[in-house]
Amino acid sequence: xxxxxxxxxxxxxxxxxxxxxxxxxxxxxxxxxxxxxxxxxxxxxxxxxxxxxxxxxxxxxxxxxxxxxxxxxxxxxxxxxxxxxxxxxxxxxxxxxxxxxxxxxxxxxxxxxxxxxxxxxxxxxxxxxxxxxxxxxxxxxxxxxxxxxxxxxxxxxxxxxxxxxxxxxxxxxxxxxxxxxxxxxxxxxxxxxxxxxxxxxxxxxxxxxxxxxxxxxxxxxxxxxxxxxxxxxxxxxxxxxxxxxxxxxxxxxxxxxxxxxxxxxxxxxxxxxxxxxxxxxxxxxxxxxxxxxxxxxxxxxxxxxxxxxxxxxxxxxxxxxxxxxxxxxxxxxxxxxxxxxxxxxxxxxxxxxxxxxxxxxxxxxxxxxxxxxxxxxxxxxxxxxxxxxxxxxxxxx
Length: 397
What we know:
Elements lengths: L2 E4 L6 H5 L3 E3 L18 E5 L5 E7 L5 E7 L8 H18 L4 E6 L8 E6 L2 E6 L2 H5 L1 H12 L3 E6 L12 E6 L6 E5 L2 E5 L14 H5 L2 H4 L3 E5 L5 H8 L4 E6 L2 H13 L6 E5 L2 H10 L4 E6 L11 H16 L2 E11 L6 H14 L2 E10 L17 E9 L2
């Protein structure tokens, strides 16, 4: 018999609005035997009036103690549900993308909380971030095989968020054979990436649409790609006609990858790469009198938790201030944040403060966000995390 998880009065409002998380402080512990619940167990979520709300999997040891998987009594969270949701997710991506390079599953936004899947042609890379999805690993792999028939499936379960669920980190091939490198085609460029050792799942598909919007700004220009990873922004700028590109990243492996990808795309004569900390490199470039027509900042998240906001905001301001100092008069700054807690308005305000500190004025030209393969769930604001600003940099006025 499936256990029942009862909610306190008025704690069902988010769920009825479409959210899928149940927090531990929302559970009516007088009616719910929390101590008897096992991590990853199926539960029926019931409101305080006894109304059935959905099927969820639970983890009583986590702040988010339940995640709703289905609101249909006749469709519990089993293999057939995974197949169904995967087909819906695939339908969207095949409608939007001409080639199989995209995020196939974006967790809650695709009705599969705790699961992320990226597609690299015939190879899939999955992250299982919750105890509930980890316990259903076999069903996930079987569903992926049934819907897509991939050559290989790699599990990149080495993300730190798994520790919040009491899960170990590991990287493992679930099916087939994964080579040392995979190829990603984006726009008119091609990139080699490491799926087992690269950052995240190997590629940042969420910025693909924003990188495409860079094209009108770079023809004949000198471009700095800061926090470049394996050169996605910089090499696409070179392919769009940039006269000179410098890629900078803290990882030596990433810089080697950027150089290799420049050669792969026949732009090695216009792309150079340098290893080093972003703050240090920006300072050294300024001291050397270097200036750029276009500077791209795509740093890691500085605000990973709400309590980190003040410190993270200072880091964004320092980084953008240093970058703006390198932008030529009437140049372009493209700056991004993947921190959910740093919202778009606060990011713009932070960059504006950085500009005023070095006597520059800004004009906001475009907003960017994550691509449509990372759809936003209207009831789950946490799914809208990526911001990009395209700014014109002028003398102060």
